[in-house]
Amino acid sequence: MTGSMRALLWCAGLALAAAVVTYPVYANGYYLALGISVLYFTILATAWAMFSGPTRYISLATVAFFGLGAYTAAVLGETMPWPVVLLAAAGVGALTAAITGLSTLRLSGIYFVIFSFGLAELIRQLVIWYEVNIHKSVGRYLFSGVTQDILYWQLLGLTALVFLVGWLLGRSRYGLALRAIGADETAASHSGIDATRVKLGVFILSATFMAVTGAVMAPRWTYIDPAIAFNPTISFQVVIMALLGGAGSLFGPVLGVIPLVLLFEVLTATLPNHFSIVLGLIFVLIVMALPNGVIGLFGAGRWRVPLGRPAAASARTMVAPLLAVDGVGKSFGGLRAVDDVSFKVSPGEIIGVIGPNGSGKTTLLNTLSGALKPSSGTIRFGGALLNGLRAHQIARLGLARTFQLVRVMPDLTVAENVAAARLFSTSDGAGATASELLDLVGLGTMHETPAGDLTYIDQKRLELARALALQPRLVLLDEWLAGLNPSELETGIALIARLRDRGLTIIMVEHVMDAIRALCSHCIVMSAGSVIARGTPDEVLADPKVVAAYLGGEDA
Ligand SMILES: Nc1ncnc2c1ncn2[C@@H]1O[C@H](COP(=O)(O)OP(=O)(O)OP(=O)(O)O)[C@@H](O)[C@H]1O
């Protein structure tokens, strides 16, 4: 772009900003009211997309927080200074989001949608009950000195703030963490991301904006009752606007707000009795025709986090043994999938866990990595007791894993997948960069490729790079070599051997016996949840009990 073009763009931007700021001075009452609607829906849709865009938790609770803000203003507006009223509304919104979020953000998919819709209705009913039985009147009057002009400028300030916060969030590690959670919450947790805390924090932030918007809007109505403040249509309109514009980017929702505010304006005037039907139709059309919103048509970037140089690994003090599993069991109802398993792993060792299908190998790995809580026994890692810790806490201690059914975050690029495992790293020494790790696993030329576009084998390589990005002391590989052709297998075995030579400790569940023989110093063999043999690969594979357990299995 030439210098004069840039100057022209700056001038146009400044002229637009001046026109927006001075809008109440030259707009008549009708257009000012439209401007107010555009602004308040912009804030609501941007705040909604801040949480729901990256996580894909579709929330219909917008009006719950908006209504609480409006009601807080109605209750306090005539007795308290206005800034105090806005702070109180923010506090009520944040507190309600914290309480409800803590109990429900473990829900996902349709359960969260239903909950969020129910929350808005529950709060509406509680407010009606309070008003009728305690306050003895259905609604409240709010007379304040807030004119339409002041209302507009308050909303404009709040719009600027929501964009600033959204921009900062997108640039922060929480932005990438949210997207990682949205792409694959399990993989994110095993990469050290505390999914519950990240989701809760951003849910509260988003709800706070919604509540303050409700408070700012309250003086517009003068008379506030639950039907106005908690009108469920608002929640649906916000979802439709954010989806039309594109919920995956910061400025996407506003592209949906402007045309839809105008359209809804026309519809309420021309089809007041069929408004909801038209709303539903628009929703269906948007989801079918523009799954990534208007902004998706331009391939506009998502909120990206610069990779930078990763945090470095600490010189960890090794305690022998690195892992001590003692009497671990795991039951599913009446099925004892893992039964009284004990073994130790010393630093730098590769231990093989083998056994026929269904013998409990993956379940054992799941108890070690925090995906499942053991029903009995203890697991100590580097001296720390892992029982009771959650997946992200175990990952942060330096215990990484790959999955039997490969789990990458498909919408994130290869580089972002690796970066996700570094977001909450507490390491402080020098470690391999993301780039070095990708070179190591053979993905050095694919940094910007979306992980979902990789072949199955490359996804496995990426999973390993992501596990290594945690700078782990122990890596659990669950059939990482499965499905490789002979030359890929050779490369895979050589790669694992290199990791061992660098001092990494590995537990590998594997059916490929050539790999077990080539890599493992020691094996445990499981059958029906119990350990039936242990020793070197040659010893266990010659054991008649093992041969019998495999029933002449092809590899053994
Ligand atoms: N979440 C679960 N709920 C109920 N049963 C389960 C669950 N996970 C595993 N199981 C059962 O526990 C047993 C052990 O399964 P697991 O997947 O650990 O075996 P595996 O040795 O890893 O098998 P494979 O080699 O086929 O992967 C099986 O009978 C399985 O059906």
Automatic annotation (TrEMBL):
<keyword id="KW-0812">Transmembrane</keyword>
<keyword id="KW-0547">Nucleotide-binding</keyword>
<dbReference type="GO" id="GO:0005524">
    <property type="term" value="F:ATP binding"/>
</dbReference>
<feature type="transmembrane region" description="Helical">
    <location>
        <begin position="238"/>
        <end position="263"/>
    </location>
</feature>
<feature type="transmembrane region" description="Helical">
    <location>
        <begin position="82"/>
        <end position="102"/>
    </location>
</feature>
<dbReference type="InterPro" id="IPR027417">
    <property type="entry name" value="P-loop_NTPase"/>
</dbReference>
<keyword id="KW-0472">Membrane</keyword>
<dbReference type="InterPro" id="IPR032823">
    <property type="entry name" value="BCA_ABC_TP_C"/>
</dbReference>
<keyword id="KW-1003">Cell membrane</keyword>
<feature type="transmembrane region" description="Helical">
    <location>
        <begin position="109"/>
        <end position="130"/>
    </location>
</feature>
<feature type="transmembrane region" description="Helical">
    <location>
        <begin position="275"/>
        <end position="300"/>
    </location>
</feature>
<keyword id="KW-0813">Transport</keyword>
<keyword id="KW-1133">Transmembrane helix</keyword>
<comment type="function">
    <text>Involved in beta-(1--&gt;2)glucan export. Transmembrane domains (TMD) form a pore in the inner membrane and the ATP-binding domain (NBD) is responsible for energy generation.</text>
</comment>
<dbReference type="Pfam" id="PF02653">
    <property type="entry name" value="BPD_transp_2"/>
</dbReference>
<dbReference type="InterPro" id="IPR001851">
    <property type="entry name" value="ABC_transp_permease"/>
</dbReference>
<keyword id="KW-0067">ATP-binding</keyword>
<feature type="transmembrane region" description="Helical">
    <location>
        <begin position="57"/>
        <end position="76"/>
    </location>
</feature>
<dbReference type="GO" id="GO:0005886">
    <property type="term" value="C:plasma membrane"/>
</dbReference>
<dbReference type="GO" id="GO:0016887">
    <property type="term" value="F:ATP hydrolysis activity"/>
</dbReference>
<feature type="transmembrane region" description="Helical">
    <location>
        <begin position="200"/>
        <end position="218"/>
    </location>
</feature>
<protein>
    <submittedName>
        <fullName>Branched-chain amino acid transport system permease protein</fullName>
    </submittedName>
</protein>
<dbReference type="InterPro" id="IPR051120">
    <property type="entry name" value="ABC_AA/LPS_Transport"/>
</dbReference>
<dbReference type="GO" id="GO:0015658">
    <property type="term" value="F:branched-chain amino acid transmembrane transporter activity"/>
</dbReference>
<dbReference type="Pfam" id="PF12399">
    <property type="entry name" value="BCA_ABC_TP_C"/>
</dbReference>
<dbReference type="InterPro" id="IPR003439">
    <property type="entry name" value="ABC_transporter-like_ATP-bd"/>
</dbReference>
<dbReference type="InterPro" id="IPR043428">
    <property type="entry name" value="LivM-like"/>
</dbReference>
<dbReference type="InterPro" id="IPR003593">
    <property type="entry name" value="AAA+_ATPase"/>
</dbReference>
<feature type="transmembrane region" description="Helical">
    <location>
        <begin position="29"/>
        <end position="50"/>
    </location>
</feature>
<feature type="domain" description="ABC transporter">
    <location>
        <begin position="323"/>
        <end position="553"/>
    </location>
</feature>
<dbReference type="Pfam" id="PF00005">
    <property type="entry name" value="ABC_tran"/>
</dbReference>
<feature type="transmembrane region" description="Helical">
    <location>
        <begin position="150"/>
        <end position="169"/>
    </location>
</feature>
